[in-house]
Structures are given as structure tokens and as C-alpha cells.
Amino acid sequence: MLDLTINPQGLESAVACAREKNIVIPTLEQMCHPEKIPAAVKEKLGSVGLWDLNPLNLFRITWKNEPAVSGGTYAGVNHIELPSSLTGVPARIVMLVGKWFPTGAHKVGAAFGCLAPRLVTGQFDPRRQKAVWPSTGNYCRGGAYDSNLLGCESIAILPEGMSRERFDWLSQVAGETIKTPGSESNVKEIFDKCWELRKSGDDIMIFNQFDDMGNYLWHYTVTGRAMVELVESLTDDADKRFKGVVLSTGSGGTLASGDYLKQQYAHVKVAACEALQCPTLLNNGFGAHRIEGIGDKHVPWVHNVRNTDMVIAVDDEVPMNLIRLFNEPAGVKALKEHGVPDEIADNLHLLGISSVANMISAVKFAKYYELGEDDVVLSVATDSMEMYQSRLAELTEDKGAYGEKDAAYSRGMLAATAIDNMEELGYYDRKRIHNLKYYTWIEQQGMAFEDIQAQWYDENYWKSVQKLAPEVDRLINEFNARTGLLEG
């Protein structure tokens, strides 16, 4: 669970650090409703770049940033609606866009969700402790970013097979970067490194997105509300036309938004997608894949499996092919020639590799349920192609320059998307997936057996986390009051 116990000594040190670094902490409510952010903060943002290592950018941890590289304030929920001329289905597939968060990925929000409660309770002392961020990519970037703002030492842990851009970026921001063996699917190796660090004697705190309920709470509160606001701006009949949300598993955090959505629209279905090459949820399987941004071979502790209605597996060859279609000049030209509006074709770079996998999964979802032109399906573009230009170069080196025939092949691959490798989940299907948590979290990571049972049988388990947002905000406000930085 999310512990909000106060450590007075650590809190005093954290407040002093924030005062020294001129750091004001935004509340979850402000992230949902940026209009509530102090006017003085908004005014100062006019001269701050989106990726600048500036504490003011904590107030840009929201889905509602104006889509601007520098000087932007706030607008509506950032999204892109993909037309049927691209997806091949009549349903309205709409993706929230993570590009306009600091670091260019929404994982900076999940990192904040894990860090903020421990900071404002004094459980984490940024002057004394190192912050450890285990990840398959974007989360450790978000954590290193937040740590840098606090002036505390950070350790980013991620697999050695991740894109070069991630490591280049971390070399400028993180205090230390540790490369673990493997790639996306090698999450256990990350956990093993965490145990090694725990035993090292160093004064560290590990912010593990896969088991930290701060990740769950941030997405339930901030992403969930953004999705409701977005869908209600898209249709006047959300109670009937909003059909579902489709999200890759990753740390399981974003799936918490599905819990919020189901409480607003009981009929909505939540689908979790993964790589076919590592079908953990679909087939209790294992393997390796190329969809950067999602980790596998375990079920995250923060994933409320009882609320998952479907699992969808995507062949990684499809998104790896489509990122060329969406980003190579010949691909963009072909899309425009075949009816994709220029405004969409020119902005498909907003979809990174896992984002394209989410899109494909949403298409499969729409085909499976035979959705019509008034039906809405949501998904998330977790990051853009900004961190994957080296992958495009590698594909060109391996397969040659991308031309007209390649674009036709890619478009055909997209059109051939079918309802294979999908499963609607019944009660015992969900329980089968939930039970996989035992091997990772009870046997390997030391979680309590009573808690894994409570996650399944206690209807108040997840609700007790969901109710903590106001308490976290109260602690943030008290923390800010103690720094005195908002006075006057």
C-alpha cells in the first residue's frame, strides 16, 4: 500500500532542500486542473523550455500542456484522433499524447507519483539518500529528471538493449546509469540489481514503478480524469458510445486509469496489450521483443487484473514496420496519397514504438467488437519517436532505404490487422493472470501472501489506494507552506 507516515527528521531536511532549490511541489489536483496553478507560476513558465531542468516544469506534469517546445502554458487534453483512412476501421481511435510532458514521455508523471508522497512525508531525504529508478526506459528518465530538480543523486537502471538516445539523455541528467543484461523482457534482471544495491550498504531508496502504488494513484487520478474529460469532449453520448481503453501493460500503472473509467462508465472495457513474442498475459509465455517501453515476463504488482476485460498480443514486426511508414518521407507521402489528412500524416511522429503497438491493439479491439463510426476507443501515445531515431537508422541499415514498395507493404500489413491473438477474459481467466504475481512478488520480491490475496478478494484494497489523492495533496500543500516559497 501507499505509506504516508511522517518522518519528522527527514521532512525537515526535505523542506530545507526544496527551499534551497526553490522547488514548489504541484498537487495532483493541479495536474488535473492546471487552471488552479498559481498565476505567478504560469507567468514564469513563459520563459521556460519544456525539457529544461527547471523546477517550474514540475507544473508541466499534466496531460494539458500547450503543445509547444518552449514557453507554453496550458490547453485541453493533448490527443490525436486517427482517421479510418489510416486505421481501416470506422471507429474513432483517439490517443492521448505524451510528447508534451517534460522529457517527452508521460512516465515523468508516474515517477512524480512515486517520489512526491515519500518526499512530502520525509520518508525520502534528498540530501542524504540516492534515488534509484528501475525501468525499461522512460520511467528512469522521468525519475532522473525529478531527482535532478531536487539536487539529489539518482541511479537509473535499465536494460542495455534500449535505444541509444535514452542512454545519451541519461548521461546528461542522471547521477549514475546502470545497464542490466537484455532488453524489454528482462525485468527480473532489473529487480536483481535492486537487491544488489539494497545489500550494498549505500543509503538508497528504490522507487519501483512495478510495485509502487504511487504510480497507480497518479494514473488513476490524473490520467483517468484526463480520459474522462477527453471522451466527453468527443461525444455527447459517452454512456453509450465510449467503448473501451486499450493500453500496453508496461509497469501496469497506466491501466489504473481503466479503474477510474469503469467507475464512471460501467460498460467500458479495459484491454491490456503486450508483445506476441512474449505473451505473458495471453499464454503465460516468455521471450524477447522489440516494442520498447513495455516490460514483460511478470504481472506488475500495481496491475488490478480484476478490471482487465481482454488481453491482446501484437507481433513486434508490425510496429517496427509502421514506424518507418509513419516517419520515412516515402511512407508519409504514401499515406497522404491514400487519403490520410496531411495534418495527421505529418504528426504520426508523435507515436513511439509502444504507442504504435497501442494503436494496433486498438484497431484489433475495434474489429473484434465490430465498432461503428460513432464509437470511441481510447489509448495512449506514451512517447514519440524522439527517442527512437537510432532505431530508424538501424532499420535502414538492415533493410535498405525505405521506398514506395516498402510503403505499400507496410500499409498492407496495417490493413491485414486481424482479431487473432486476443482473449476476452472471464473470472477464472483473470484469476489465472493474477496468480502469476505470486512467483515474482511473493517468492522473489518478498511481498506478503496476505496482500496478493487481498488484491483479489478484498473489494476495498484498490479503493483504499484511490482515496488517498486528497491526503497526498494535503501533505503537498503543507510541505509548500513550510518552504514559504508561495507566500506573497
TrEMBL record:
Residues 102-327 form the Tryptophan synthase beta chain-like PALP domain. InterPro entries: Cys_Synth/Cystath_Beta-Synth, TrpB-like_PALP, TrpB-like_PALP_sf. The keyword Cell inner membrane does not apply. It comes from the Bacteria. Keywords: Pyridoxal phosphate. Gene3D superfamilies: 3.40.50.1100. Its cofactor is pyridoxal 5'-phosphate. The keyword Oxidoreductase does not apply. This is Pyridoxal-phosphate dependent enzyme.
